[in-house]
Amino acid sequence: MLEYVTEAVVLDKIDLAEQDSRVFLFTKDFGKVVAKITSGRKIISKLAAHSEPLNYVTVRIVDKNSPQLIDVLSSKKIIPGKTAFKTLYLIKEIAPENQPDPDLWEFLKSMEDKQVEEGVFIQALKILGFDPMHAKCNNCLKGSPDFFSVKDLAFYCKYCHE
Ligand SMILES: [Zn+2]
Question: Residue 74: CB partners within 8 Å, gap ≥ 6?
């Protein structure tokens, strides 16, 4: 059994059955971690309240067979907005689990208490290895594509973008 404390940003939270939930974190020390909050714990309402998406948190995780969130304390948060949610969703979908990434962590820290501008999404793409600079439309191969599809992990021009 492994127990650790690390700083993290909450990327997303999904409610499961019986008050359980699954929290997607990007942690400073371990990269992306998907942890479960299990009901039956008296402090579950506290855990749930602090582990909302966009929050900067300090988490305590116990990893027996899979990571479980056993304590969380939030401090600051990213200001909500379309680009902020899009960027966190991208990291949730693309970042590999249990692989620390200091650049991505610094990037997430830089979003603290700031209005997240459109260019931030492009920055995240670059850090994750999808630089739009030399990209082509996945369909017609035209250069300088306008959109990135997280679902397809591919760029599209405005004509091919559905
Ligand atoms: Zn195209």
Answer: 50, 51, 52, 55, 56, 57
